[in-house]
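Exam prep: given the inputs below (a chain plus adenosine-5'-diphosphate), describe the expected output before reading on.
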Amino acid sequence: MSIVVRQVSKLYGEQKALDNVSFEVKTGEIVAFLGPNGAGKSTMMKIITGFIPASSGSVFVNGIETTTDNKEIREHIGYLPENNPLYPEMYVREYLGFAALFYKNGISFKKQIDHIIEVTGLAPEQKKKIGSLSKGYRQRVGLAQALIHNPDILILDEATTGLDPNQIVEIRNLIKDAGKEKTIMFSTHIMQEAEAVCDRIIIINNGRIMADELKGNIYSIIKRQLQVVHVGFDKEPAEADLLSIANVVKVQKLEKDQWLIEAEGEKDIRPDIFSFAVANDLTVLSLQKEESNLEEVFRHLTNR
Ligand code: ADP
Ligand code: MG
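Solution:
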């Protein structure tokens, strides 16, 4: 029950929303698709689910190539689109029955609907109109809709965006529970969200994959990709001179003679800072390498 994305690009007119994107999601994984707004997350998900075509490249779901007219694919995929479009005039149970009609697998409707209402915690609200539900419950209806045909794969586009902290925890728990049996790809623009729910994080920016790592490894790629050094000099160096040190990508003045220096790459930047000081007749009074956190890496990877 895997997803394989091979060299997918997508153009909207002149604009390239996806640029040669490749990745795989293996059976049983929960993968976060993390990137800032406009990165291409929703576009990628619409292509995987067969709602829009790629401009080039291909996507395979369980080994079957996704196309916009392939209904077979949709039997395997549950999809919660961004902004969770629902029919506010429909009743919860009625809507889920309606959603089930689109699938062959939803056949034993009543039993399946009862089951899904149970697992998504919708029982107390099932007789209400969708429009009268809180945002958290509406999101549960969206999840129930995605689960109704018992798909192997769930594609969840910003499933917790706009919810309050309690609702976020509840929806995350539902996702984690579903993830015990299913392959899940969920998009988010929030670091902590990715960290809280997933096994693996794929970072996308400007339509390109910037990182694809197991959650436990993402800290080491951070170290490979970004070093943050806090340095104090006895005199004021020129900012432009600091920026000329090899691999330095950003400098920030903190207080008098104190600087935060960000450098790319694996090679320790500290000897270069000493050499720089010597060459510029400065003395290094303090030098400390900071542990960069996921937030910084994310900013770094998505700010260029
Ligand atoms: P994300 O979900 O990561 O916020 P999207 O996939 O929605 O990103 O959008 C990626 C880029 O493609 C954005 O620059 C967006 O403006 C553009 N885009 C998305 N959908 C369309 C569309 N239907 N027509 C034109 N441009 C679009
Ligand atoms: Mg989106």
